[in-house]
Amino acid sequence: MLVATVIIIIRMEKLMSAVLMTSFFSLIVSSIFMVLDAVDVAFTEAAVGAGVSTIFFLAAIAIVGRVSKPTQRKKQILPLAIVLCTGAVLMYATFDMPRFGSPDAPAQQHVVPRYLNESMAEVGPPNIVTSVLASYRGYDTLGEVGVVFTAFIGVFLLLGAGTRKSGIERTANPVAGVESMRQSIVLREVSDLVIAPVLIFALYVQWHGDFGPGGGFQAGVIFASGIILYALIYGIVPAQKLIPPRKLAYLPAVGLLLYAAVGVYGMLMGANFLDYDAVAHDPLHGQHYGILIIELGVGITVAAVMINIFFSFSERSL
Amino acid sequence: MIAGLFNYWVVIILMMAGLYIVMSSRHLVKKIIGLNVFQTSVFLLFISMGKISGGTAPIIADGFTAYSNPLTHVLILTAIVVGVATTALGLAITVRIYEAYDTVDEDDIAEMDIENENKETAVSTVVAKNT
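The joint structure predicted for all components is written out below.
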């Protein structure tokens, strides 16, 4: 099924349908993640791959045009040969891989048993993914948030994210067909029904990440998709009145700094950077507060970056 | 024996399909779609490696003893979000290329570059002659 979808994507010349197939592909992959026990990952893939990234692709092809020219036959042969050779070599390499699902594979040794056995006593949250993400590997996550922030800076510099002064006076439609979208009663009523639960669900995912699947990354993306839905249905101008782009541009930095500030606070209280044991009197409480605050920082950064990127793309397509 | 490797083979097929899209298509947005497919295959590889047969999602609850590997989940979870941010960066660059060249077709861009270069060398030889 997955392979069939990809082959369809390869053959599509209309970009619009290729993008929609990519979205479908992400949805299938996320259900496979679900089957493979990776609930947090499935959650993220569904929100990001099938949601936000599709919107970005659509916004981009609204600017650059929808049809890609077919490749000449001659030019297809060399890539095909390279791909087949590489694939064959990789297939050969899989024979040395540990068998799927085996508990004694190298990936299951080393640090993982400690995470599984000790994290309840050392960090606290029942969701081990959250405790590894936010506490054991806090540096990594700080770095990832930094990368998201850097990508946002890049888009901001390339496209001038939403800071044009004419933004408010303009009445034209940012994305093609927005006017008709607003008039379509079904779309408007359904989105009215959906937007508020989406935002509330984002907050639930944000604060419930310790116990169930969820956390700052997912919550940020879901929150952003609620706002993006509003902007798609009602137009970019009301959305920018709701969230002024100039203020929004500061929020990614605020989230990242909030994350780093927790680390520095831990240092001031006498522990290591991003060690939350010293944040409160009791180490477990400290871990709990630390994780909550840095997840909030992650959520703010991710949501603000996604909304910013969407605004800058749709301003370009005017 | 074969069943134990099936997941990895699907991953390789997807990876190669993504690579093929990147190499063979001329449209820059489609190349980014190819990169996305490639990236997703890597995600699938990691998650497959983290799975334990008979395990459950790594959320501690009574009555379960085997949990799948939380570490790979963490790595991929953040990689997905970073991936969408970098995809957006790639699309932004594509949009700028479109504004500069009025096309996002790789071959057309290369042709225009060669033409521009020829013009520039022509101009510079004229200047050199005049001086």
